[in-house]
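STRUCTURE:
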């Protein structure tokens, strides 16, 4: 039963009874007594704090915030109150305000471990990894053997691209008593992100023995096996898991990439339909999944994934027209591609992504190969999309090239893709998808080029460009600004004599301009460049130079120099 407040009782007496009920987990009674105390004295700070903490405990966050804000106005110097307010604000999704509250708590009481930890977690949730690591280091100064803090530090360090720091923190966490499965997972991820595949494998196998149903661990081991060149074993590993967990989308997607990279297009496209990146669009767009529903209709194909993926998959529009015979095909394009795609004859209309709702059936771009059953042998793949460059842009860039230095011109890029911060999500898998060769290695490989190197590295780091220039030792024309306008980039890529670099939108546009290229493929290979061979059926006019399974580029770069006549 709830004890009613006694008439005439003082605010202090009511507060004492409220604290006793609160400590005894009699929350309804405690709330009633806190409110009675505040009715007697509205500025009773201790009652405001107690009621705010109780409401936070009960999940009534808006009411809790009101009480705690009033308390901090009355008593601004209590670190505990700011820390609880930070938790409430974080729960309400106001992360920036939560950071301010946790920072205030840590400043008021530098030895307050929870304030430093929660501050670090808020920074991490916003993708601000360096600030998060700084806050967690402060917590570890106070509690150096706390397994949970070490675990958090390891996770943030992993997302920050610091696998060695992850490894050190994970080892300390395990020694401090962290759950063995969590420790093995972190140790494995640290080695995986450093591409130490041989050391990652036993850690993932150790974790899977205890947690065999974890899809993340299954994918982690599969990526590790692929990294060592054991693709068939990775495929068998995924199949074994899917035999028990038929619809796991992430594992199906990883299996799809391996199958597509081996040319097993039939089964590959079927599993590709499970790609997690399309889940939100499927829910909002309700796309058609059967081409037989499309004859005679006006169909909207909807963009997804990156610019290079758009250019790659748009080759299937003609197949969709042949298979489904729709009245017309419109395309909802990414903003950067709307202009160039308006000149593609295969598309009857190009629309912005935020155009008014489409009245007819919609199709996701990445679903086209499956809908068209574009699953024949490699030689039967549709040819690349062709996009003509504008004559005035061609003249502009040919003039810029002539002014930059002597011909011949070779365009280069050493990185494809860029890790995008996704607040609240682990980034280790996305980091593995970034394609990169050391700019100093690429520069050294091109040393002696008789003309001008044209740098087409998007969002380049100054240190990377300097490393390339130093290793190359010749004339470098920095034309990265061409990425600001796809029309410029397309014209420049059509104008240069050679393209050498890792897979990026540069390669897709070069192929769309009907020009050959040379692509450097890191290990494990991205599916569109296949797992072996000197050419890919997707872009047969490109020559492929593959990093060895031991991550050595020397053979590939030596062959590149021979092919360039250097």
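SEQUENCE:
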């Amino acid at each position: 039963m709830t004890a009613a407040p006694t008439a005439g009782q003082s605010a202090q007496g009511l507060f004492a009874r409220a604290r006793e009920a609160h400590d005894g987990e009699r929350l309804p009674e405690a709330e009633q007594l806190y409110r009675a105390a505040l009715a007697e004295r509205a500025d009773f700070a201790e009652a405001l704090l107690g009621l705010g903490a109780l409401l936070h405990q009960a999940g009534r966050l808006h009411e809790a915030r009101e009480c705690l804000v009033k308390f901090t106005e009355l008593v601004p110097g209590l670190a505990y109150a700011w820390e609880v307010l930070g938790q409430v604000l974080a729960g309400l999704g106001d992360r920036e305000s939560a950071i301010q509250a946790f920072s205030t708590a840590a400043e008021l009481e530098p030895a307050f471990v929870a304030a430093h930890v929660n501050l670090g977690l808020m920074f991490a949730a916003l993708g601000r990894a360096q600030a998060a690591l700084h806050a967690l280091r402060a917590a570890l100064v106070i509690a150096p053997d706390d397994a949970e803090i070490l675990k958090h530090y390891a996770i943030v360090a992993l997302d920050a691209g610091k696998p060695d720091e992850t490894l050190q923190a994970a080892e300390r966490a395990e020694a401090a008593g962290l759950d063995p499965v969590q420790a093995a997972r972190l140790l494995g991820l640290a080695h995986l992100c450093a591409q130490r595949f041989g050391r990652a494998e036993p850690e993932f196998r150790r974790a899977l023995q205890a947690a065999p149903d974890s899809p993340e661990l299954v994918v982690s081991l599969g990526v590790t096996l692929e990294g060592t060149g054991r693709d068939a074993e990775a495929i068998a590993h995924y199949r074994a898991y899917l035999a028990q967990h038929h619809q796991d989308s992430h594992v199906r997607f990883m299996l799809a990439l391996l199958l597509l990279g081996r040319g097993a297009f039939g089964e590959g496209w079927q599993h590709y339909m499970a790609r997690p990146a399309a889940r939100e669009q499927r829910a909002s767009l309700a796309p058609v999944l059967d081409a037989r529903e499309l004859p005679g209709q006006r169909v909207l194909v909807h963009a997804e994934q990156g610019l290079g993926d758009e250019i790659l998959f748009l080759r299937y529009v003609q197949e969709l027209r042949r298979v489904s015979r729709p009245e017309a095909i419109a395309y909802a394009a990414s903003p950067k591609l709307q202009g160039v795609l308006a000149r593609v004859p295969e598309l009857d209309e190009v629309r912005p992504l935020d155009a008014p709702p489409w009245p007819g059936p919609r199709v996701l771009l990445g679903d086209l190969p499956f809908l068209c059953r574009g699953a024949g042998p490699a030689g039967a793949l549709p040819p690349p999309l062709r996009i003509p460059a504008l004559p005035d842009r061609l003249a502009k860039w040919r003039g810029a090239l002539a002014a930059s230095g002597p011909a011949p011109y070779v365009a280069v890029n050493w990185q494809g893709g860029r890790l995008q911060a996704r607040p609240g999500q682990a980034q280790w898998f996305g980091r593995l998808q970034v394609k990169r060769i050391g700019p100093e290695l690429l520069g050294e490989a091109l040393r002696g080029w008789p003309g001008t190197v044209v740098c087409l590295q998007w969002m380049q780091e100054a240190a990377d460009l300097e490393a390339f220039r130093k290793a190359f030792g010749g004339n470098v024309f920095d034309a990265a600004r061409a990425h600001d306008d796809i029309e410029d980039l397309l014209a420049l890529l059509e104008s240069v004599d050679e393209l050498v670099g890792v897979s990026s939108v540069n390669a897709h546009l070069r192929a769309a301009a009907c020009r050959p290229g040379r692509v450097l493929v890191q290990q494990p290979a991205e599916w569109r460049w296949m797992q072996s061979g000197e050419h890919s059926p997707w872009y047969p006019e490109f020559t492929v130079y593959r990093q060895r399974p031991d991550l050595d580029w020397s053979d590939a770069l030596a062959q590149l120099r021979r092919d360039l006549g250097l």
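REMARK: The chain has three domains: 11-222, 286-380, 391-563.
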